Amino acid sequence: xxxxxxxxxxxxxxxxxxxxxxxxxxxxxxxxxxxxxxxxxxxxxxxxxxxxxxxxxxxxxxxxxxxxxxxxxxxxxxxxxxxxxxxxxxxxxxxxxxxxxxxxxxxxxxxxxxxxxxxxxxxxxxxxxxxxxxxxxxxxxxxxxxxxxxxxxxxxxxxxxxxxxxxxxxxxxxxxxxxxxxxxxxxxxxxxxxxxxxxxxxxxxxxxxxxxxxxxxxxxxxxxxxxxxxxxxxxxxxxxxxxxxxxxxxxxxxxxxxxxxxxxxxxxxxxxxxxxxxxxxxxxxxxxxxxxxxxxxxxxxxxxxxxxxxxxxxxxxxxxxxxxxxxxxxxxxxxxxxxxxxxxxxxxxxxxxxxxxxxxxxxxxxxxxxxxxxxxxxx
Length: 379
Ligand SMILES: *Cc1c(COP(=O)(O)O)cnc(C)c1O
Hints:
Layout: H1 14-26, H2 33-46, E1 50-54, H3 57-67, E2 75-79, H4 85-92, E3 96-100, E4 102-104, E5 107-110, H5 112-118, E6 123-129, H6 138-148, E7 151-155, E8 163-164, E9 167-168, E10 175-179, E11 192-196, H7 199-209, H8 217-221, H9 241-275, E12 295-298, H10 305-314, H11 342-350, E13 351-354, H12 362-378
Parallel strand pairs: 2-3, 2-6, 6-7, 7-10
Antiparallel strand pairs: 1-11, 4-5, 8-9, 10-11, 12-13
Helix pairs in contact: 1-9, 2-9, 3-4, 9-12, 10-12
The structure holds pyridoxal-5'-phosphate (PLP).
């Protein structure tokens, strides 16, 4: 399908090609010095003491759940309106994800009040997701977590570079996870990063990332070690040098690209208010600086969403939905009866995500909203 305006588009150029070439020429492909530089640069950008690069954000979330001590019999509170990986990561440890509702149509993030109501004596952790790059109510959530002695893990997959009160998202909780998947604000194809200020967590995360081994192939290559012990049940969740090199270049481009996303978001808001005021734009009163990963809008309740999306497609405009709620999936269906999440269920049926990427122009935004206005009439 040749879209006139796709949902997302990556910003790759000769810099990325040169970075990959230099890795290929170096003949050192697995995790090594470029990964170390990428971790240092990422930690500095976020304002975190430690950053640990991994295979993807799903692996990052899994390791954080392990380090948080989650296991069978434990509960972790998660939103249902997120990508399935957030909840799967909890289940990998044998713990149970407990789904809670979002705040409402203006704030698609997990509701502080619903978290509070869901806490039981089994609750060990809260996994927050900063939907679209917009910050959850971290000060209140952290206070609640302190009162109940819970670990807060941030799924900041959408929020690379987002801020709240001058502090980057991802470093508010005990550990934060980022994704560099192809459609995220910066990408290496498949990749992820964990940030933390806790030295013990950082050490354990590094061990778990590479089989629980006390030395890396990289250390042995440099003559720093010739043997190793295995001190923990680890995984192979390493990143490689090609992706780390891409990550370095993409991180450099991120601030300007996020700024551009915020600008385009504002254009969307202004034009939608003029042309299609019946469409709700969430997060307009959000405080903080968003990475503006997504441009979600809520259609009026009487609109048939699938025929609406078909009408957009006919006009060459790609749209998506974020997200089908996790508690309604087949693999989670046993849970369905347990949950009453009215905001999530209402909004998940009305939400569509409009195209948003740095290379979009103002005119592209106008075209999307004009198509939206037409599709609303004929859907
Ligand atoms: C993309 C995404 C993930 C998973 O990231 P991967 O790097 O693809 O594993 C997790 N959570 C959310 C909210 C995401 O959007």
